[in-house]
Structures are given as structure tokens and as C-alpha cells.
Amino acid sequence: MPELPEVHTTATILNKLLKGLVIRDAWSGYKSVFHKGKSNIKDTAYFESFRKKAKNRKILSVTRRAKNVLINLDSNETILVHMKMTGHLLYGTYKKNPKHKIRNSKQILNSKKGKIEENWGKEAWMPVEDGPLKDPFNRFIRLVFTLSNGKHLVLSDMRKFAKVCLLSTSALFESEDLKDVGPEPLVPAFEFRKFKSRLLKRPSGKIKQVLMDQSIIAGIGNIYSDEMLWLSGIHPLSIVSRIPKIKLRELYKGMITVLKKGINFQGDSTSDYRNPYGERGEFQHKHNAYRRTGKSCSKKDGGMIKRLKVGGRSAHFCPVHQKLFTQSET
Predict the structure, then answer these.
(1) CATH code at 294?
(2) CA-CA-CA-CA torsion sign (21, 22, 25, 27)
(3) Which of 174, 200, 222 finishes a domain?
(4) Which of 235 and 1 is assigned the larger pLDDT?
(5) Which residues on neighbouring strands pair with residue 304, listed in sequence order?
(6) Which domain holds residue 205?
(7) How far apart, in whole angstroms, are the C-alpha atoms of residue 302 and residue 293?
(8) 328 located within any domain
């Protein structure tokens, strides 16, 4: 799932590309009976209303809150896009594919090799330009906005988990999607004191899980929590209230360092994330812990990266320098 650096990268690029453009039309390939009556575009009735309201509206800006991309319109309305597991927004020139055929998930996935087929032939939309947009991970087009400059903003979403809805801009942060989201970790006001107080809202929680709790701090997920815990020398199973203040300070600094590094490298494309140009991020080449099971620790402390499950999610850590805090320090 795209985390803060990936969503920040997406929103920053799209703000430069889309500001001042007008949405001329919208198309959706989402059609799910399970979303009937729900307030997102997977409900066909909702999408028709969404489409009418979005048409001919000017895009004022594209911003981010937590893991959500916010496309702010001149109608005091905002298109919220949560990309979920496999979604990413792309910008370019697209055309409808007359050979498009609806396929099921078994046809989409190559079961023999476990890899996604590199065939655009049966997809609903195709990019006109050659280049990164034709990366096979970019081809699962579920939503298309036609823009006033002749380009398109599209959402590629292989597993169809993404959420898109239209909200009142003035009441945006009181909406069900955003009202319970924790503070942003990279704003100047989020000082160490506030960081500590947020973590201590779950004093008996395991630090890996607490960091990923979006109601505690916004935007941190599996990849970056592993990396900041590795950097600060804290075991992912450590209990929040048992971690010494000096180590929490290291974690606070590590959080800022890792998230900024993720942004500087344009996000992480270990899985299928791509930026709006269809390009991979580079942070996956900078991992010290995430998905490095069995490899030597980069600190050269003799440790080998291990993997364990924490609340149903994988955690990667060095058992040598990442200390487990489950009792009070004496």
C-alpha cells in the first residue's frame, strides 16, 4: 500500500500537472454489487452523481492528508482518492481499446510464473505515448478523467481496493474518511513531545503496530515502520510504555529521517507503486530491514535480518542491535 512518501510524491507531481485544468468527463470501470448504496464510485448510481458534479469543474490544487490524495475543485468539493493496496494515479494521453474484454482474476494473473502478464491487448484503456506509462503494472485502469488539455488522469488499481469519493471541501476534515486520522509526522508542529504523547495513547501496544495505526500518526505503514525501527534500534515487539525516553527520541528522529528519505527517492516501488509519470520510485534500493530476511545487517554488527508476524503483518528487524523493551529499565 502506498504510504506517506508515495502519496506525497503523487500529490506533489499532480499539483504541478493538474492545477488550473478542467475535468471534461469521467469514466469508471468499477461495478460492484457489494458497494451498492455506499458513498464511493464502485456503486454505479453514486458514480453517475459523482461524474455530473465533477464535469466542467476546475482543479484548484492537489494536496495530501495521510494516505489520501485530495483533488480540490472550484465547486467547494474535493475528490478523495485512497489508493489502498494496488492503486496509483497516472497522467498522460490514453485511448479506449476496442478489443477490451472483461476478464476474471485468474485470467489476469499468470498462475504458472506468479507474474502479471505483460499484455495490454485486452485492457479497457491504453496509453498513447511510449515509455513508463506502458509498464505492465500501470495497465489496470479503473477510473479515467478527461482533462481540458487533452490529457487524462487515470487510476490503475489491479485488485480494485481503491476508494474514490466526492466530499465537501469546507467539511473535508470532519468527514468519515479523515476525522479520526492522527497528526502529520513531518509538519514542524509535530515535535517530540507530541510524538511521545501520541504513542502513549496505546501504552501497552507493540510499537510496530502503534506506528502503523493511522489514528495515532498519519501515513506510516509496513515499509517505513520497519526502516525507522531499524534505524533507532528498537525491536518491533517492544511495548510502547517500556521504551526509554532516549530511545523514543531516536525513533522520533529516525521517523523524520526515513520519511524524508522516502520522499527524496520518490517513494518505494517494491510492489506495484508508480508515480504519475508511470515511473518507479527508488526507495526499495535503500532498505535496511524491509524484505531483507536472511541478509546481513547493514550496521555490520553480525546480525542477520529476521522476519516475524506482528498483528498479521510482517516485521523485519535485526536481532542484534534492535533491543526488545518489554520491562521497565532499572
Answers:
(1) 1.10.8.50
(2) positive
(3) 174
(4) 235
(5) 296
(6) 192-317
(7) 14
(8) no
219: exposed, middle or buried (Cβ count in 10 Å: 0-12, 13-18, 19+): buried
Q: What is the pLDDT of residue 103?
A: 55
Q: Is residue 186 included in any domain, yes or no?
A: no
Q: Collapsing DSSP states into helix, strand and coil, what is residue 86?
A: coil
The secondary structure element, H or E, covering residue 88 is strand 87-92
268-324, pLDDT tens digit by residue? 999 999 999 999 999 999 999 999 999 999 999 999 999 999 999 999 999 999 999
Please say whether the beta carbons of 308 and 123 come within 8 A: no
Cell of 280: 518507479
Report the alpha-carbon distance of residue 198 to residue 215 in Å, rounded.
9
Residue 256 forms part of a structural domain? yes
Conformation bin of residue 283: beta by default, left when phi > 0, alpha when psi is -120 to 50: alpha
Q: Which amino acid is at 178?
A: L
29's grid cell:
470501470
Reduced to 3 states (helix: H, G, I; strand: E, B; else coil), residue 307 is strand
Nearest to 61 by CA among 6, 14, 9: 14
pLDDT digits (tens, 9 = 90+) for 168-210: 999 999 999 999 999 999 999 999 999 999 999 999 999 999 9
Is the separation of the CB atoms in 236 and 308 below 8 Å? yes
For residue 76 the three cell numbers come to: 467547494
